[in-house]
Structure formats: structure tokens, C-alpha cells
UniProtKB/TrEMBL annotation:
Record-listed substrate binding positions: 97, 166, 213-217, 324-328
Residue positions binding ATP: 198-200, 208-213, 328-331
InterPro entries for this protein: aa-tRNA-synt_IIb, aa-tRNA-synth_II, aa-tRNA-synth_II/BPL/LPL, Anticodon-bd, Anticodon-bd_dom_sf, Gly-tRNA_synthase/POLG2, Gly_tRNA_ligase_bac, GlyRS-like_core
Role noted for this protein: Catalyzes the attachment of glycine to tRNA(Gly).
Protein name: Glycine--tRNA ligase
Key word Chaperone present: no
HAMAP family: Gly_tRNA_synth_B
NCBIfam families for this protein: glyS_dimeric, PRK04173.1
Record text on subunit structure and interactions: Homodimer.
Keyword ATP-binding: yes
Aminoacyl-transfer RNA synthetases class-II family profile domain: residues covered: 5-367
Superkingdom classification of source: Bacteria
Organism: Candidatus Jorgensenbacteria bacterium RIFCSPLOWO2_01_FULL_45_25b
Subcellular location: Cytoplasm
Length: 462
């Protein structure tokens, strides 16, 4: 079984991720986060907001609406250029992304990607066949990824609108209002977290490519100076890579991949992906883009509103350049789970054919920080003390309670969902006012005074 399959199984079994509306057969590209997934993604978003907004003097956060005036998407270029090439199998009617099939055939040359895809399809000797049934494929056709919706209550007079294809545009359309209502000065950034929607041709890879997903983005406005903006671009690349290292990703599993000129999306002058190494396959987790003045220039042109910035220092008016960092919450969660997933053969002294599955999630991302157990569920004095500790700790941490089975089984259950610490209340606790604290990663146990438990865990988590 591949790592992705193991993670997907665990995610479903333990309540991280469920297929959306599964009782009706599900729906392609849609997933729900269960109780543990909701905690994990909330922790990712909270840490993002903390480091990208709260701890910075030069960044503010906003939360824009999902549906905007449809003209926004004309201005941003999405109605025209936000598309992928699709091919259909003439025999089994399966649909594929033309470029993905070429990639699967191993003929990908990133330096001339789009040209190459077209060339491969134009030549009868290299034109790929259906990956499912080997049937003939249609010619590639461009397919727009924007998801349409209709607003209004009068049939026939409903207005077409779009679910946003990227969360970005809500920031740029608010550029002037942010300038007028806050004290930001260039260089400054606007961060946002929210849902985006894309009519992906081939959703898949578990939660890797979805039709509904959440993004965490920073739009950083700088002077329109080529050299200086390039420097800021490089700085943000490094900061974003470091962010993943700080949250437990290993260096060997991360890399930058530059987009070749003909791979660049319509708004980008330069782009790098931060990729994650999923068992030898590099997958995009976050994009860092130099958007130039594309967005503000286009909104100025389409809205006929002045989008320039007045620089009080230099007494100049200009359209700033934009450096963007954009990550998918679901992808960060997925790769954090993959990075954390370990199967460990247990050491001598324990049943040596036994394997421990443990999620070594960074403590700040782990859904539960600590679990509390009474040694025996049928001893009221142990349960009462354990419940008191559980309730006290809940004031500061996300805490799990478990009294089923034996302590060994409870440890395993917590290991599998990444809980960094387990606290067991035993008979000694009644006398000595201390408890056993067991560490998820080392499996070592130590006695800690109940009065010092909260500060002990706080210290270890930080
Ligand atoms: N505003 C720029 C932008 O949206 P992008 O490279 O299209 O750029 C940024 O998307 C990030 O959003 C990706 O790196 C990925 O993490 C996430 N993402 C994009 N499409 C996705 C999809 N279909 N499913 C899940 N996540 C997606």
C-alpha cells in the first residue's frame, strides 16, 4: 500500500477526512474534514495567521466574499485564460487533462511544456491513448475552470456569477479601501484565508486536487522596481519554505520548482512552487508568484477607478508590484499527515511482530495536545481525579479523554492521531499528587506533579 493510501485510510478511520455526501455516493473533488481534520486544519490556519499577520507590523488580514461582481473575473483574466487542456476518450468517454497524460508518458520537458503537449498530440506517432482503455483521444480543448452559479429568485432573470477561482481578487479589489481605512504604507501585505472553487477536470490524489478547497494567501505590495521586487520575491520564497521547516517538515522533502516561461499562469511574471516529496513524486504545496502590477492595472482599466498608490516619501503615484504566496490548506494538511506518518517496529520486550502507527505531527498542529486516562475505568476515585485534571487542562489545551480498554491500547489510539502527551492517573496519584506523562515520540514516561502538569505541557509544546 502506498503512503498516500495508508494516510487516506487512517484519515477516514480516525475522523480526519470523509468523502463528501458519501451516503449518496459522494461527489468528485469534494471532501469533508471530520472532528480531527477540522482541528488539524484550524491549527494550520491559526499558525499561518499568527506568523503572517499577528506577528508582523507590515501585514493586515481581510476576509472577502466568495461571490463577487462577475466583472472582477473578466478584469483578472480568469474568464479568458483560467483554463486547462482536456481530452476525452472516444471509446470509454473518460476525461483527462491533456498535459497530465503527456506527463504520465514520461515525455515532459518543462522548458517547452505547452508547445510540447500540442506537438505530442499533433503527431499520430506520439499522440497518447486513453490511460483506462487504450482508446483514441479527442484533440485537446481548453476548458475554463471557473465554477458558475446563478443569483436571484426570478426564473429567467437570474444573474450569472462565479464562485471565486482564487481568493486573491478580494484583496486587490479592496486595495484602495484598505489604504483609506488603515495606516499601511508600502511595502505592506494583505493576508487572507478562505475557500476557492475550480472545475478541475480530474480531481484526485485523495484531497490533493479538489473542486472546493481552502487557500491561505499573502498579497505583498511593493514599489514597482524590478530589482527590488525580485529581492522581496526571493525573501518571501525563503520565509515560506522556513515556515514548513518550523512546522516539522524535513528539508529533504521540500524543494522549489521554477515555472518555465510557457508554464506561467496569465498573471505571473515569475513563479516558484514549494513542492513536497511524496514517496519520490514531487507535488505542489504552495506557489510564490511575482504578479507584477497585473491585478491593479487590470482592475483600474475595467473599473475605471484609480488604483494607484501615492508614495508620501517620494511624492510619486504608481501601481505597486505584487508578490504573492498562496498555499492550499488541504494540501498542507495532507502533506503534514504524510510527513508525520510512521510505522515503527516495537522494541524487544514487547511483541516484536507488533507495529506501532504513530503520527509525529508537530505539537502545534496536532489535533489533541494531551490525552487523560484513569488507569482503571471502574475505580471511581481514579476517574474523579482524572476528570478533574481533564477539565483543568481543557482551559488551556485541546484534551482527549479515554477510559476504554487498557492503557497500552489507549496509547496506541492516541499515537495514531498524533497526540503528543498522555497522562495516566493511577493509585500513586491519589497519594503522591503526581501522574505518569508518556511522550508520543520517545514513548518515555515520567512522573509529574499534578500542580505542575499544565506548565510542564505548555513548556514541552512550545
Ligand atoms: N492566487 C494564486 C493561486 O491561486 P495556484 O497555484 O493556482 O495560485 C495556489 O494555487 C495553491 O492553492 C496551490 O499551491 C495549492 O496548494 C492550492 N490549490 C490550487 N488548486 C487546488 C485544488 N484544485 N485542490 C486543492 N488545492 C489547490
Amino acid at each position: 500500500m502506498s503512503l498516500l493510501e495508508k494516510v487516506a485510510n487512517l484519515a477516514k478511520r480516525r475522523g480526519f477526512v470523509y468523502p463528501s455526501s458519501e451516503i449518496y455516493g459522494g461527489i468528485a473533488g469534494m471532501w469533508d474534514f471530520g472532528p480531527l481534520g477540522a482541528e488539524l486544519t484550524r491549527n494550520i490556519k491559526n499558525e499561518y495567521w499568527k506568523t503572517m499577520v499577528r506577528e508582523r507590523d507590515d501585514v493586515v488580514g481581510i476576509d472577502a466574499s466568495i461571490i463577487m461582481n462577475p466583472r472582477v473575473w473578466e478584469a483578472s483574466g480568469h474568464t479568458e485564460a483560467f483554463s486547462d487542456p482536456l481530452v476525452d476518450c472516444k471509446k470509454c468517454k473518460k476525461r483527462f487533462r491533456a498535459d497530465h497524460i503527456v506527463d504520465d508518458f514520461g515525455t515532459l520537458d518543462p522548458s517547452d511544456f505547452v508547445g510540447l503537449v500540442n506537438e505530442v498530440y499533433a503527431d499520430p506517432n506520439t499522440k497518447p491513448k486513453c490511460l483506462e482503455c487504450g482508446g483514441d483521444l479527442t484533440e485537446p480543448r481548453q476548458f475554463n475552470l471557473l465554477v458558475e452559479t446563478f443569483l436571484g429568485s426570478v426564473e429567467g432573470a437570474k444573474e450569472k456569477a462565479y464562485l471565486r477561482g482564487e481568493i486573491t481578487q478580494g484583496v486587490h479589489t479592496n486595495f484602495k479601501q484598505i489604504l483609506d481605512s488603515t495606516r499601511v504604507k508600502i511595502p505592506f501585505g494583505v493576508a487572507q484565508i478562505g475557500k476557492a472553487f475550480r472545475n478541475e477536470i480530474t480531481p484526485g490524489g485523495f484531497i490533493f486536487r479538489c473542486r472546493e478547497f481552502e487557500q491561505m494567501e499573502l498579497q505583498y505590495y511593493v514599489k514597482p522596481d524590478k530589482k527590488a521586487s525580485q529581492k522581496t520575491f526571493e525573501e518571501w520564497k525563503e520565509k515560506r519554505l522556513q515556515w514548513y521547516l518550523d512546522f516539522g517538515f524535513s528539508k529533504k522533502n521540500l524543494r522549489f520548482k521554477e515555472h518555465a516561461p510557457d508554464e506561467l499562469v496569465h498573471y505571473a511574471q515569475a513563479a516558484f512552487d514549494i513542492e513536497y516529496n511524496l514517496e519520490g513524486e514531487w507535488k505542489e504545496m504552495e506557489g510564490v508568484h511575482h504578479r507584477g502590477d497585473w491585478d491593479l492595472r487590470r482592475h483600474q482599466e475595467y473599473s475605471k477607478k484609480d488604483m494607484t498608490y501615492y508614495d508620501e516619501e517620494t511624492k510619486e503615484k504608481y501601481l505597486p508590484y505584487i508578490i504573492e504566496t498562496s498555499a492550499g490548506v488541504g494540501r498542507v494538511a495532507l502533506f503534514a499527515l504524510c510527513e508525520a506518518y510512521h510505522e515503527e517496529k516495537l522494541k524487544e520486550g514487547e511483541k516484536n511482530d507488533d507495529t506501532r502507527v504513530v503520527l509525529k505531527l508537530h505539537p502545534k498542529l496536532a489535533p489533541y495536545k494531551v490525552a487523560v486516562f484513569p488507569l482503571l475505568a471502574n475505580k471511581p476515585e481514579l476517574v474523579t481525579l482524572a476528570k478533574k485534571i481533564y477539565n483543568d487542562l481543557r482551559g488551556s489545551f485541546m484534551v482527549a479523554w479515554d477510559e476504554r480498554g487498557n492503557v497500552g491500547k489507549r496509547y496506541r489510539a492516541q499515537d495514531e492521531i498524533g497526540t503528543p502527551f498522555c497522562v495516566t492517573v493511577d493509585f500513586e496519584s491519589l497519594e503522591g499528587k503526581d501522574v505518569t506523562v508518556r511522550n508520543r515520540d520517545t514513548m518515555k514516561q515520567e512522573r509529574v506533579l499534578i500542580a505542575e502538569l499544565s506548565s510542564y505541557i505548555q513548556l514541552k509544546l512550545s
